[in-house]
UniProtKB/TrEMBL annotation:
Alphabetical UniProt keywords: NAD, Oxidoreductase
Name of this protein: Phosphoglycerate dehydrogenase-like enzyme
GO terms of molecular function: NAD binding; oxidoreductase activity, acting on the CH-OH group of donors, NAD or NADP as acceptor
Family: Belongs to the D-isomer specific 2-hydroxyacid dehydrogenase family.
Residue span(s) of domain D-isomer specific 2-hydroxyacid dehydrogenase NAD-binding: 147-297
Cited Pfam families: 2-Hacid_dh_C (PF02826)
Upper taxonomic lineage: Bacteria, Bacillati, Actinomycetota, Actinomycetes, Streptosporangiales
This protein's record includes keyword Heme: no
Amino acid sequence: MPRRPVAVFAIAPWAFGGVFPADLLARLRQLVDIDPTTTFTSFDGPAATAALAEAEILITGWGCPRIDAAVLSAAPRLRALVHAAGTVKAHVDPVVFESGVVVSSAAEANAVPVADYTIAMLVLGAKQVFSRARRYAAATAGTPPDWLAGDGTGLHHCTVGVVGASRIGRHVLRRLRRFDVEVLLYDPYVNAAEAARLGAEPVGLDDLCRRSHLVTVHAPALPETRHMLDARRLDLLPENAVVVNTARGSLIDTQALTRACATGRISAILDVTDPEPLPPGHPLLAMPNVLVTPHLAGAQGRELRRLGDFAVAEVDRLLNGAPLVGRVEPEHLPHIA
Ligand SMILES: NC(=O)c1ccc[n+]([C@@H]2O[C@H](COP(=O)([O-])OP(=O)(O)OC[C@H]3O[C@@H](n4cnc5c(N)ncnc54)[C@H](O)[C@@H]3O)[C@@H](O)[C@H]2O)c1
């Protein structure tokens, strides 16, 4: 058997087994020489130093220590960093990109469950399922059915505003093609022709807010996206609009959202909040028209192996000289998650 490149795991043990189940580890071990029983959450100490000295590929994941100049000098053979999770911004120092080490992320694989969650929430949110279920649970026996003809609920022929044709936003846009809805898109990086290819009408964010029955937020947290849905824009939303946020809490002004939802004029479904988690007793947690989930839209449980699958496929591509699907280019960092 030809010499396999040496790879090293740096991923938290709590995530490791889910991301790399035994069969996936076996596949990976056909490609690289890797110790499947050791994963580093710190690069301090003799074992990490010895592993880094040989490492050609670092396979990272949640809980990975920061990869910086010190790690690079301890790992002179390193040529690729394959991240079996989403963003690399938190743990990959810019010096890594400057060094020529190739960086790949499994954000594309993590986008799939977030898009699935989003579509589920758009369907259920449009029907006001969560608030109606709460009212039903609280009602006494014999309460008449809680639905009306012409009450403005339901997905049929409504307008969905997508904020950000990001990886997740694009998965959502693709899934929305199956529904008979009008789709608006706000994304300053997407031109009209591309928006049309994505099945959406490109609009400004104010226009999107004015026209959308459902707004779903998929932009990255950046200085320019902070509070992009502020009090003024929330006021533009039509009566009974539903805001779904699976992106980052900072994109919506929490105080303004709390005030808007308290009036009952709009509803919200929030997988992310600012602050996160919300403090116990926060008004949003008790509102019947607000559903808050604990940042669970991304890969969880069985979905974790999708990240490992993606990472193993990236290693395969790397070793075969094929372009990496999840390659992170340094020039994209200022406007990606
Ligand atoms: N809830 C979860 O579990 C979960 C999981 C993964 C990602 N996320 C979040 O979802 C969001 C999308 O993630 P991703 O990996 O698809 O992002 P991404 O890195 O693909 O997003 C980059 C794209 O966003 C768009 N964009 C950039 N600036 C924008 C702006 N000002 N307005 C509108 N669009 C803009 C551009 O098209 C850009 O290419 C991020 O906020 C991310 O943190 C949440």
